[in-house]
Amino acid sequence: MCGVLGIVGSSAVGHRLYDGLTLLQHRGQDAAGIATSSEGKLILRKGAGLVRDVFNAEHMARLNGDMGIAHTRYPTAGTSASAEAQPFYVNSPYGIVMAHNGNLTNAEEIKRELFESDLRHINTRSDSEVLLNVFAHELQERNPDTQLNPADLFATVEAVHRRCKGAYAVIGMLVGRGVFAFRDPLGIRPMVIGVRHTDAGTEYAIASESVALQGLGFALLRDVAPGEAVYVDVAGQMHAQQCASEPALTPCIFEYVYLARPDSIIDKISVHKSRLRMGERLARKILRERPDHDIDVVIPIPDTSRTAAMEVAYHLGVKYREGFIKNRYIGRTFIMPGQAMRKNSVRQKLSPIDLEFKGKNCLLVDDSIVRGTTSNQIVEMARDSGAKKVYMASAAPPVRHPNVYGIDMPAANELIAHDRTVEQIQEKIGADWLVYQDLSDLIEAIRYDKHPIAEFESCCFDGRYVTGDVDQAYLNSLQQARNDSSKQQVTDDLQVL
Questions:
Q1: Which band of pLDDT confidence, cut at 50, 70 and 90, is reported for residue 296?
Q2: Residues noted as catalytic
Q3: pTM of the entire structure?
C-alpha cells in the first residue's frame, strides 16, 4: 500500500505534488519522494519519513517544472531504508522516473532475467526498481526515436503485463516528454484520473485515490481501467489504450475496509457508503447471534471504524459514544514496521475517556483485526477504565492468510486468526465475546446495487490468490524474507553498512 500521484500542468506542479502527497499520507508513512521535469532536466528529492519531514522550503523551490510525479511509501518488499524511497530513475531510454503501488509476485524471477538476459543491474531490494528496469528494457527494445510515439509506450506496457505478475499501479515520467500510468490487468490497486480546465490549458492528474484529485482542484474523470495505460504528453494531450489481453476488474477489498480514505471513490464505489453498509450488515449478524444482547454503548476504535460503528449503534438501538481520543501525531499502527513498535504505539496513540466505560457493557467496533496486538491492549484499556463487560466486533472477516499484493501481511504466524477459531481469538484478545463480519456480507456491502465488479481480491480472508501464481512455496519464502524479525535484521545490517 503506497500512494502515487502524477500531474501534467500548465504551470509549476511542485507544490501541488507536495499537497497531493499530504492527502495520500495515510497510504504510507515510511518515505516520500517528488520528481519534476524542467527544461529537459530531472529534479528529484526523496527520503525517509513523513511528507512534511522530507521536504523543506529549499527543496520545494528547486522542484520546478510543469510536470512531475510523487510517491509516499509503505514498505512491503525491501526495507525501510531511505535508499529505497521512490521514485526510482534510469537514464536510458529518454530518462525514466517511476513510482509504484503494489507488489510483484514474480520479482525474484524477473531479477534473474534482468541480470542474465537484459544486462540490467538492480541495486535495491525493491520490486519497484525491478518493474522500472523491465519497462526501460522493453521500451528500448522498440527502438524509439527522439519523438516518442504513444504506440511505443503502449507496446511497452503490453510487454510489462506479459512479464510481470502481481499487483501494480504505476506512475512514471519520461523526462521532458510526459507522464504515463498503468494498472495491472486485474486492477488490484486503485488509480484514478482527474482533469482541470484553466485559462492556460487543460491539466491532468493521476492518483491512487480521488481524495488527492479533489484536494488539488481536479474533477474526477474516471478510473484507470485494469490493464490500461494512460500517457499525457508535455503538450497536455492525453492518450489511452487497453494493453492487457484479458483484463478483469478485481480490486482489493481491503481498500474499502481500511486502506482508503472514506472520502475517496474507488472504481465508482464510495468508500464512505460501503463502510456504512458494513456497519449495517455487522449489526444484523450481532442481532442474529446475540438477540438478547446487553450492550449499553457502541464505541469505535478510531479512526477508520467510526463510520461502521455509527451504523452498528443505530441498528442495534443503543448509544454511540466516542470512548477513545486519538493522538494525531502517532501514525497508523497497522502499517508500522515491527511488532514491538506497534505494541508500544497503541497506548501512546489512544487514550480512553473513563466515564464512557465505567459501569457499562461496551461493544468496541474495529474495521479489522490483523495481528491482534492493538485489540488486546484496547480491551485492557476499556477494562481498566471501568467497563463491566467488553465485547468486540470486526467490520471485516477474520484475517487468516497472508496478503501478497502490497499489504503488510506476509507472515501467516503473525496473524491472530491464522489457525485459530473465533473463540480462541476472543480469549487471546481478552474480550467477553467477539463477532466477525461474514465475507459474503462484506462483499455485498461494497458491491451495492449490483455494481459490475464480479469479484474482489480478498486473499487475506479466503486464501484465494487471483493472479494464479502463488503457491505454498512462495508463501513460505515470503514469510521467511518479510516477517518482522527478518525486516529488523535487514534494517540492522543496512545501518551497520
A1: very high
A2: 2
A3: 0.92
